[in-house]
Amino acid sequence: MLTSINPSNNKVLKQYDEMTTEQSYEIISLAHHTFLEWKETLFTHRSELMKKAAKVLRQNSEEYSVLMTMEMGKPIAQSRAEVEKCAWVCDYYAENAEKFLTDEIVKTEASKSFVSYQPLGVVLAVMPWNFPFWQVFRFAAPNLMAGNAGVLKHASNVTGCALAIEDVFRKAGFPENLFRTLLVSSKNVKPIIENENIKAVTLTGSVPAGKSVASLAGSLIKKTVLELGGSDPYLVLEDADLEKAAMSCVNSRLINAGQSCIAAKRFIVVKKVYDEFEKLYLKFMSDKKMGDPLNEKNDLGPQASTQLRDELHNQVLRSIEQGAELILGGKIPAMDGAYYPPTILKNVKPGMAAFDEELFGPVAALIKAKDEDEAIDLANKSIFGLGAAVFTKDNKKGEWIAKEKLNAGCCFVNDFVKSDPRLPFGGIKESGYGRELSPFGIKEFVNIKTVYIK
Ligand code: NAP
Q1: Sequential pLDDT tens for the chain (454 residues)
Q2: Distances, alpha carbon 277 to alpha carbons 269, 281, 325, in Å
């Protein structure tokens, strides 16, 4: 049984029967047969449907936004923004997929030689709950445009979203079985990966989930893309505009109640400006309002579940035991729901949970560095390498640090890290491999075929 629970009051919203493996196999087989026809369609036809999907999203934005907020607690304004972003990625690939996947002539001794991009078949997407629509659309839009079919195994707590997404493609007029949702929990994913019609797997989620899925897929020689966790460092240098930097750092830490892979997690501030930064950071964090995510006045709602909230609290307690100092929050409030307040730990150092692990909630780790070199070293001292940001008035220096020094997939200067359909998104180290979005994302699950005519 898959259960959706509203984390703002812990009441059960709905329960769904899990599919048996046979039922999943039936759907995968239907998706495969649909793929065989879909791959023959023209880009103009696919674009038309993908544009319609964007329209369906915009027309039903309120319904989808409320559903997301009810199932996982995202503040309603952020849910609305997420639906709009999904429409954007549909439009983006509707307009650009053909250009990205056009044959590329390569001059050789042949009379003609070129690279052609051919779809692979049915791709399995294992997705997380934190951006329940966006994570799926950034997979589905490029892949359906490339000629693939998709089956979605969504996180067990957002089944309502999973079914609504399937319905978006149905409403847009895509073939009935081109994109389907499988109602299965994580323990039943293995036989799905093993199904011969599943040609590749993409997983967005935690490191253990990524390791488990990728090792099985690897043993079957099925390609994977992994978008895993992060502990993004934000560097604040001596010449930074501290007010802007602190505001940006707070907003990035609290987005989605802190449950974003690219939320800022470690704030590494050089000694000279540390005290001033801490003062501003504390003020801005203290100003944020926590409460009912359906009330637009609130900046953050609950965590997605009490279990996840309790795990986060345990990380805070362990960090304090290890020597970190709590200067804000850090207590489970006496109210219904999975709430956790904006929290700040200072004096955070390597070896502490708040430094070494991913803190998936509104908990900031403040770290003092003696200078820029030490700040860069501390930033890179992580098993993760997803995003990173640097704040400085010297854009040239910022660019050099972002490009040459920070070991991460997405490095920003004077802004917080965000995903954008036009730019590649993904990580290195235990944050995963492969890229989503941009021309790179649409080429992950295609056969990059060489054609050579003598
Ligand atoms: P999770 O527990 O790993 O779950 C993600 C998905 O994987 C869910 O559908 C889950 O299903 C499934 N899953 C878990 N263990 C599995 C296994 N052994 N075999 C097959 N499937 C498995 O992660 P989460 O708590 O939902 O999401 C938070 C994590 O995702 C964080 O680490 C975050 O940083 C990461 N994330 C990364 C990105 C990125 O782009 N890099 C974006 C968003 C989130 P069930 O729900 O049924 O367990």
Answers
A1: 999 999 999 999 999 999 999 999 999 999 999 999 999 999 999 999 999 999 999 999 999 999 999 999 999 999 999 999 999 999 999 999 999 999 999 999 999 999 999 999 999 999 999 999 999 999 999 999 999 999 999 999 999 999 999 999 999 999 999 999 999 999 999 999 999 999 999 999 999 999 999 999 999 999 999 999 999 999 999 999 999 999 999 999 999 999 999 999 999 999 999 999 999 999 999 999 999 999 999 999 999 999 999 999 999 999 999 999 999 999 999 999 999 999 999 999 999 999 999 999 999 999 999 999 999 999 999 999 999 999 999 999 999 999 999 999 999 999 999 999 999 999 999 999 999 999 999 999 999 999 999 9
A2: 8, 6, 16
- Distance from the alpha carbon of residue 205 to the mean position of ligand 1, in angstroms: 3
Whole-number Å distance between alpha carbons of 360 and 303: 9
Domains and CATH numbers, the chain: 2-228+431-453 (3.40.605.10), 232-413 (3.40.309.10)
Nearest alpha carbon, ligand 1 atom 40: 227
C-beta 126 within 6 A of ligand 1: yes
Radius of gyration, CA atoms only, the chain: 22
**DSSP string of 175-202?**
-TTSEEE----GGG-HHHHHSTTEEEEE
Is 367 near ligand 1, meaning CB less than 6 Å away? Answer: no
| Nearest atom, ligand 1, residue 131 CA | 43
Rounded distance from Cα 203 to ligand 1 centre (Å): 7
Atom of ligand 1 at shortest distance to CA of 189? Answer: 20
CA distance 19 to 139: 23
Catalytic residue among 86, 161, 249, 261: 261
The answer to whether residue 194 is catalytic is: no
- Tokens 């003598």 belong to residue: 454
374 is catalytic: no
Tell me the CA–centroid distance for residue 92 and ligand 1, in Å. 26
Global confidence as pTM: 0.97
